[in-house]
Amino acid sequence: MNNFKITLEYDGRDFAGWQRQSETAGRTVQGVLEEALSRICAHRVMVHGSGRTDAGVHARGQVASFVTESARTAAQIVQGANCLLPPDVAIIAAEAAPLDFHARFSAASKVYDYDFSISPVRKPLLNKRAWWVGPGLDWAEIEKALPHLLGEHDFAAFQSTGSETKSSVRTIYRAEMSEPGQGLKRLTLEGSGFLRHMVRAIAGILAEIGRGRRPAAALPEIIARADRSLSGPTAPPDGLYLARVIYEAEGLSNSKPIESFHAPQGNRLKAQR
User: Fold this and answer.
1) For the whole model, what pTM was predicted?
2) Class for domain 108-243, per CATH?
């Protein structure tokens, strides 16, 4: 048996999310990935993702793992699967992993990006790839709010109703804004884990703060009250990207040499260039 860790990019606009569903529910990333890998490995493959991204959410560095009886190499996994996958998803790297590695349960932290389009006019090429908020937000006030997110908190105020999660306590290690170009502002959050719609809810409250509807100083009380109805709107999925999944042992070293393969840049998903 061989265990593989694979890293994926995908454009989530035409997917009904990560998790495999019934055929009538729509196309999913897990579904098309398992179909391609099952053909490459010549047996049914079950893929475990590091987390479930919702419909319309993108990924620059989603991680998944799967166990196979096939003797395929990492390079053959990447090249073969990418020939079968649709244009809006690609495996950008693969490596052999210890049998006890699991993409979800072995993760130490995750990094999400949320992109805001601040152009004075709507940019069609950013359609469903960024949330168009226009140029009027007070980004200095938003910056003041970010330190209140750091540390361990009960983030129930930013959790969608109907979640089956037992605990809403999470730790945020990093919260920062950057300007990646193309008229974008980018929120980056790194945490031990994220609740359903948590990043989008945080993006929503930050936009409210930027519009002057709430002060940055109100964020600690909103978190403390743990009431979703008090924390404002949920931002659309358009600007959300799973950027990276971090593992304590990034090298994934075990008793035998690690065989890995990274796809050339030209083979990566064109929509993410």
Assistant:
1) 0.90
2) alpha beta
